[in-house]
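Question (not urgent): is this output format expected?
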Amino acid sequence: MRETYDFKAIEKKWRERWAEAEAFRVSEDADGEKYYLLEMFPYPSGKIHMGHVRNYAIGDVAARFLKMRGRNVLHPMGWDAFGLPAENAAIKNGIHPNRWTSEHITAMREQLELMGFAYDWGREVATCDPAYYRWTQWIFVQFFKRGLAYKKKNPVNWCPSCETVLANEQVADGLCERCGTPVGKRELEQWYLKITDYAERLLADLEGLTDWPSKVKTMQKNWIGKSVGAEADFPIVGFDRDLRIFTTRPDTLYGVTYMVLAPEHPYVRPLVAGGVYEASVDAFLEKLQYLSDIDRSATTLEKEGLFIGRYAVNPMNGKEVPIYIANYVLMDYGTGAIMAVPAHDTRDFDFATKYGLEIIPVVDPGDGTDLEHMTESFVAEGTMINSGPFDGLGNREAGERIAAHLEQNGLGQKSVNYRLRDWLISRQRYWGTPIPMVFCPVCGWVPEKEENLPVLLPTDVEFTGKGESPLTTSKSFRETVCPACGGPAEREIDTMDTFLDSSWYYLRYTDARNTDEIFAKGRADYWMGVDQYIGGVEHAILHLLYARFFNKFLYDIGHSPVREPFTRLLTQGMVLKDGTKMSKTLGNVVSPEDLVERFGADTVRLFILFASPPEKELEWSDTGVEGSYRFLNRVYRLVAGLREVTRDAPDRYEAVTEDADKELSFAMHAAIKKVGDDIGGRFNFNTAISAIMEFVNALYRYKGAAANPALLKAAERNLILLLSPFTPHLCEELWAETGHTGFVYDEQWPTYDADVLARDTVEIVVQINGKVKEKLRVSGGLGTDDLIAAVNREKRVRTLIAGKEVIRVIGVPNKLVNIVVKGN
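Got this back:
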């Protein structure tokens, strides 16, 4: 008997057989209960990494398990294929982005196939394929027709040396990553989507996502940033327009001692034009060119401001207060202007102290705070002071009355504000979806006719790394005719943010080869929503928020059948090595391909699923991989060794009476229950694998006894079935070697017998730091987790550990539980 199995030959054989049989192809089945399982698709960088392997292995185990449970499982894969790396490769190496991307997709598809993932490759999509981005453009046109896409000026990062627009990720410490030149700002007309029109729905519908991690929902809530308060209009002395601000604390209006405008606010230049402050304001604006919005909003930023020589009038008391511009106020948040109440805001207090501005407290917390000699601000509940007719009221009641006063007197109104801004989707890039808009001198901006989509990326472009976009170098692309009047016109030369491409791909998978429409409604109705979505927590905000936005829009126009695209969400943890994220820079990257070559794909799959629960970080361990490899060889030898006993045994076994038979029967049914519960209910793959290992140990113990061939045959069969979602190649081989036909993937998941598991009670020893403290009777046959839970429920045990810090709990089924506590 071989000591190690020939994983290379076995894995190659079964990959080929799956492909020949199209084993994972799926279609709608009116009688079958569907399950749509999806992992976030990758950017085709050319190499899969351990994060990919973990993400996709989690999904693959679930897909295989659910298929065996009788579900009609849709499990597709594709490529988020537009983006900067391909364009940078074109600039650096003279390789067209399309060729670079295509070669990388081919390489990564082969790597994913090596891992044995059960994908329906017949539904594969690539966002750079015109057959796909035709429909991305179609969605944009629908946004435009409904007034949800518009164009306006906005500052962008600009490198004067490279003469090009830079994405935020291309700017490091204020410098261009290509040449090291200080990056400035430039105003460009750019396209936006009105995601703010959906802000309230995006927020409210989070409550219905009960199977999403709470931390992800909290992150989205904070990003949307709903604030309830009031808007107030401050007249500007000698100026014909009022300054509107939003505040969540109208109760503090009497404490306003100055106003601050974002330097980019449209009022700034008119307010200083031709005056003595104009030159100093220009200098201040020039300085801000080299400070990113992220830096400007950081709490560690030193607050800098400039008085612009103008005053605003407080609508509540008629008091004139000075107007400043400051580096910490951004135009993209609120109205781009704030009222400053330094007594009750730390940032305002620091600014007022620095520039010698007045500080007026308007809420007395009643706790003895020295309101005459304040050394720091405080946000407090309390009684109103220094607030005219509102003195003596509680601040909450005063806030309501002040907001009503503003509204009744035409000085403002109650208002809801959102931190969420409209989505800037223009990119001055070549390798992206062309924005299907045409500018006509007569008609203005006009969408391309839907029958003319897709607007294709041209090939007659130059990749110089300079200029606004390579598309500007293509005459064949830019010059066109107006879709409305037929006159000469020019195409939009910006391309779309790649987040648009990934905001609807899950819908395209339902009907990926449809050339007549975005997808057939009947197919989307059958498959949507996505029952389980899996991906990294780094996508918790932007991708997931944009995907929800797109789906809601498509639902509104009658295409998506569901209000929310993803019913259940799992965010898997990162793969670490030596305590840090794997990175080429740190030199701690582990290559999946190298490990597959040394140990086989099944070993890599098993280790990465056994080492840690999916949602937790996983610390890489070379010895852990070797241990997984040894275990699979142990399983192979076990099944090979059983063949002499089980080959001619009957397929069913009678009720067992011998103690050894009872022990194996119990171990088998306990494993079936545990593995099924852990995969199907909680995705606790590590404990499921542990249960399989316990089952293997039980089989090794039993085979030395006077064996019951029929029982052994059932145990052999169930072991292969239980292990197959984790290590499919080996299990297909064992399934065939044990005389079965067809794929193990198509078999039914085994069921357990509850009567077999209903064992008598057993006595359990309870230890604290290794010393016996109690003896309890609990149900016999409990697995480790259930045993620990049963012991923890006992009042006597809770009394023993009361007030102690529990470090860990160790359980040995049917024997003892040792509780390790800090100290004695």
